[in-house]
Amino acid sequence: MNSTSETALELRIARAYVKLWCIPEESAKASLLIASIGSYEIRMFRGPEFDFDGTPLFWQELFDLSTKTSVDGFSCHRIKDAVSIFDDFISHAGLLNGPGGARQ
Asked: What are phi and psi of 49, to 5 degrees?
């Protein structure tokens, strides 16, 4: 990924992270849709309250809408780290949706 698209993606994830933390704690919906790729979604989930002991800031998940199951998920300790995970999820969802993927 080139630095311009990486920076744009980092900003997209940072904006989603801010929106996620604007959802009230007591809300049942503590997740946010970041992207849709065919029958897959990339979601962001709030982690526990941030403390400086290595607790992740948030979690990203690749979710299969047709089976209503999580395909993959990762904890993210820094927004910059989330960029490569997001990019991997985009690629994975593209492969799963494409010819020869899980969706036939």
From this structure: -50, 140
Domain coordinates in residue numbering, the chain: 3-49+57-97
| Spatial distance between the Cα atoms of 12 and 24, rounded to a whole number of angstroms | 21
Contact between 40 and 54 under an 8 Å Cβ cutoff? The reply is no
Report the pLDDT value the prediction gives residue 104, as an integer from 0 to 100. Answer: 41
Q: What value does the CA radius of gyration of the chain take, rounded to a whole number of Å?
A: 14
Name the pTM for this structure.
Answer: 0.81
